[in-house]
Amino acid sequence: MPAPQVALDEKYLSDGQDMPPDMLEAKLWANPCPFTFRINYLALLYNTPLYNWVQDVYGLKRPEYVVLYSLSLADGSSARDISTTSGFPKNTLSRAIKLLESSGLIEKGKKMPGAGRKQALHLSQTGWEIINKTKPAFEQQERRMLKTLTDGERQMLFELLSKVVIHAEDWSGSLPGHLE
C-alpha cells in the first residue's frame, strides 16, 4: 500500500492533457518531500506579508522582530535561546540585538548565573508597545490560515507538529550519514 503522501489523487494522474502539470498540484501530490514542502509553503505565505508589514510600518527587519517576538514569549531569554528556536545564525541575531538595544527596544540584563557569557534580554516599554501593536496581526493571520480546520483537526495538527519539533534534535544540524 503506498504511503498517503504519495497516493496521488486520480484527477492529478489521469487528466489526459498534454499541458505540463500545475506546479502547486505537482508539489502537493508528486513531491518526494511532501511534509517539508507544505511547511515551507505555508510559512512563506504566512511570514512574508507580516514581516514586510512590520518592516514598512516599524522599520524592523525580520531578525529584529523575531528577537522582540521571542522575548515577548519568554522574557529574560538569551541570544542563544533565540537563535536555537528561530533558525537565525548567532551573528545575524547579534547584529539585531545590538540594533534593538541601541534603539531602546530591548535591554540587556545581568549575566545569567552559571551560564558563561549568556546574558538575559528584556523588552523595554517601547519594545512591548511594538509587540502589543503587532502581535494581534500575527494571531489574526494564523486564525485565517487555520479557519478551514475544525477545532479537533487544529488540535491534532498542533500535537503532531509539536512532536516533530520536540524531536528535531534527532535529525537537525546534520545530513544523513551517506551524504556527510
Describe this structure in words.
The chain is mainly alpha-helical and 180 residues long. 14% of the residues are buried. Helix content is 59%, strand content 6%. The protein has one domain (19-166): Arc Repressor Mutant, subunit A (Orthogonal Bundle). The chain contains eight helices and two strands. Residues 4-12 have low confidence and may be disordered. The two termini are 32 Å apart. Strands 1-2 form a two-stranded antiparallel ribbon. Strand 1 (106-111) and strand 2 form a beta hairpin. Helix 3 (34-58) crosses helix 7 (125-146) and helix 5 (79-86) packs across helix 6 (90-102). It has helices at 10-13, 23-29, 34-58, 62-73, 79-86, 90-102, 125-146, 151-166; strands at 106-111, 119-123.
- The percentage of residues in β strands lies in 5-15%
Strands, total number: 2
Provide the structure class. Answer: mainly alpha
Low-confidence stretches: 4-12
> How many angstroms separate the termini?
32 Å
Number of DSSP helical runs: 8
Level-1 CATH class name = Mainly Alpha
**What summary fits the major beta sheet?**
2 strands, antiparallel
Work out the count of structural domains. Answer: 1
CATH topology: Arc Repressor Mutant, subunit A
Shape, per Cα inertia axes: globular
Radius of gyration: 21 Å
Strand order across the biggest sheet? Answer: 1-2
Order of helices and strands: HHHHHHEEHH
Give the mean pLDDT: 89
Name of the CATH homologous superfamily: Winged helix-like DNA-binding domain superfamily/Winged helix DNA-binding domain
Which percent range fits the helix content?
55-70%
